[in-house]
Amino acid sequence: MTRPSVGLDWRDSAHWGGGKRLPCVHCRRGAFCRDGQGRPCHKTCAEAVLARRTEQPAHDLTEGAA
C-alpha cells in the first residue's frame, strides 16, 4: 500500500503575494506565497505541516472537558 501524496496545488494566482516577501507562518523566513487564508507561507512548509497532521491520530475533543 502506498502513502497518498500530500502535494498541494498552488498554481492558482491567489497564492502569489504580489512580490512582497513576508515571514512564513510556520518557519518565519521570508515567503512570497500565501496560503488559502492569505497568510504568508512556503508551499513546502504547508506540505510538511499537512504530512505531520495526517500521521498523527485525531485528538478527542471531549478530553479534559468538565
Helix content range: 10-25%
Number of strands: 2
Radius of gyration (CA) equals 15 Å
Structural class based on helices, strands and sheet pairing: alpha+beta
N- to C-terminal distance: 41 Å
The percentage of residues in β strands lies in 5-15%
- Mean pLDDT over all positions: 81
Parts with pLDDT < 50 across at least 5 consecutive residues: none
Shape: globular
Number of helices: 1
Compressed to H and E, one letter per element, the order equals EEH
Strand order across the largest sheet: 1-2
Describe the main β-sheet briefly.
2 strands, antiparallel
Description:
The protein has a two-stranded antiparallel ribbon. The longest helix is centred in the last third of the chain and has 13 residues, at 43-55. A hairpin with a 6-residue loop joins strand 1 (22-23) and strand 2 (30-31). It is 20% helix and 6% strand. The chain is of the alpha+beta class and 66 residues long. The protein has one helix spanning 43-55; strands at residues 22-23, 30-31. The chain is built from 1 helix and 2 strands. The mean pLDDT is 81.
